[in-house]
Amino acid sequence: MISKKWLLNYHLMLLPGILLLIVFSTIPIFGVVIAFQNFIPGIPIFKQDWAGLDNFKFMFQLPDSRRVFVNTIVIASMKIVLGMIIPVTFALLLNEIRVRSFKRLVQTIVYLPHFMSWVILSGILIAMLSIDGIVNQIIGLFHVDPIMFLASNQYFRHIIVWSDVLKEFGFSAIVYLAALAGINPSLYEAAEIDGASRTRKLFHVTIPGIMPTIVLLSTLSLGNILNAGFDQVFNLYNPLVYSTGDIVDTYVYRIGLVEAQYGLATSVGLLKSVIAIILIAVSNKLADKFANYRIF
Amino acid sequence: MVLSKSWGTRGADIVIFALLAIVACISLFPLWYTIALSFSDKAAVNAGRVFAWPVGFNLSSYKIILEDHKFFAAFLISVKRVLLGGAINFVLTVIMAYPLARDNKMFPGRKFYVWYLVFSMLFSGGLIPLYMTITELHLQNTIWSLVLPGAVPIFNVILIMNFFRNLPKELEEAAVVDGAGPWYTLIRIFIPVSMPALATVTLFSIVGHWNSFFDGLIYMNKPENYPLQTYIQQLVVRIDPALMQTLTTEQLIELSKASDKTLNSAKLIVAMIPLLLIYPFLQKYFVHGIVLGSVKE
């Protein structure tokens, strides 16, 4: 069925997309040479001074750079762990409900925050956590003095992690609900005939049934250990909480686009990308090994 | 099979119901609270008297927004961006997924293209090189800076490619026998039978365009070019970092009290309306869409 005319059309269909990818994805990859230059804006890229590894050496001397990598890994790990436990628990609870209408109502409500932007949600959180906001009103009932939550290094990471959980737990649970729906009903019937209680069924049928999904998603989440969530942190942080809340991506934005240190910013970004690629490769390898998972 | 439930089981049911009801309330509360603030009296909000119900109900903040030309200009830019960006994403997804869904022997170049897509998905130059590319192309302050960098939604292309591959082969063979060309086959056969899947990925790309603020912030130099989310980010969310470092805690508290929470909340709600309008459609499709993601040959 191969005809020249069809083949030509296949290439034609792919052409616009490929051209766009070349311009906006492949060409910028060559731009990472800035990381090895003393880049001065306004001069063409091939006429810049080469700096070798100076930007990287400088980066490792800056206390800020070390701090942002630590913050990123801490925030991202907390998100990965809670972003696994809470959706699984929620899916297990929802799975016990047999009243269809209630189930659907709960699902409709908890999926909604996933589709709100971090700009909107941050606006809401700022209002809720402000000095005269609802959270301070509630703790005021217990005679606790008002707290400036978003300016407090003690609370900032928790706010980031828990608000992310609040936004995403429902949507993340969909995968587990699908896995739960896929468990063979005859397993439950067999367990019932054997006289298994509800708890026994949970531990011997339900949880083993979704274990492969849990293992797979935890392995793949390893690739996210440097993604602490730029949009969220950018909209909630401020200089008072840089020491616990500044992450790699916000740091790259500030030193690069605000302070115009292009060379340094690119080298920080490049280091992050290289580590991320290695982590993604490793996590996919592990997923293939443990769960027979392959993207392609 | 009718099982008589023991008291223990029924008790557990009640606890689970209650837990889920609480969780749902917590999920909904931020939105609810913002609505309550937006309809409340300014003084009541600043005195911290609004809890879960508007105090001193009034519509004045919504009236202010209705007369705010800048807000509507930003709203319009976002609408334009969603329409243009969503259309480009849709067209590129189908015209790229269709040839890539052929067998390797029917389309010898396929493997190369797929690898290039995967490569582009995994590797990027990062923020600074992309920013410089956009500047070099003089796309700053144009709507193209918002829609072209993400024009090819690679993940969606791969999803739809897998979806097309699972369609019965007879569909296409029948079209070929009738003398149809590839474009006709794609537009008249593949697109109509894949509508639910295509609706899913298109709705997601529309939400993505509506929600993104960062590209608007870095590529638009003039505030009058900001899309809505960037506009809101600058007015409602952002605190001037320089201010933050010079002011004392007491001054910061005063600053926070002086901000117009009622008006800000109303702005957040208006910015959410389009999303709430398409949410029923989203919900209808996305569960299907996630299952779609796991479909493989």
From TrEMBL, chain A:
Pfam families: BPD_transp_1. It comes from the Bacteria. The chain crosses the membrane at residues 12-36, 68-94, 115-139, 159-181, 202-226, 262-282. Keywords: Cell membrane, Membrane, Transmembrane, Transmembrane helix, Transport. GO terms for biological process: transmembrane transport. PROSITE patterns: ABC_TM1. Residues 69-283 form the ABC transmembrane type-1 domain. Signal peptide: none annotated. SUPFAM superfamilies: MetI-like (SSF161098). Belongs to the binding-protein-dependent transport system permease family. This is Sugar ABC transporter permease. The lineage of its organism: Bacteria, Bacillati, Bacillota, Bacilli, Bacillales.
From TrEMBL, chain B:
Pfam families: BPD_transp_1 (PF00528). GO terms for biological process: transmembrane transport. It is a multi-pass membrane protein. Residues 75-282 form the ABC transmembrane type-1 domain. The chain crosses the membrane at residues 12-33, 82-101, 113-131, 143-164, 185-207, 265-282. InterPro entries: MetI-like (IPR000515), MetI-like_sf (IPR035906). GO terms for cellular component: plasma membrane. Keywords: Cell membrane, Membrane, Transmembrane, Transmembrane helix, Transport. It is found in: Cell membrane. Belongs to the binding-protein-dependent transport system permease family. This is Carbohydrate ABC transporter permease. It comes from Paenibacillus montanisoli. The lineage of its organism: Bacteria, Bacillati, Bacillota, Bacilli, Bacillales.
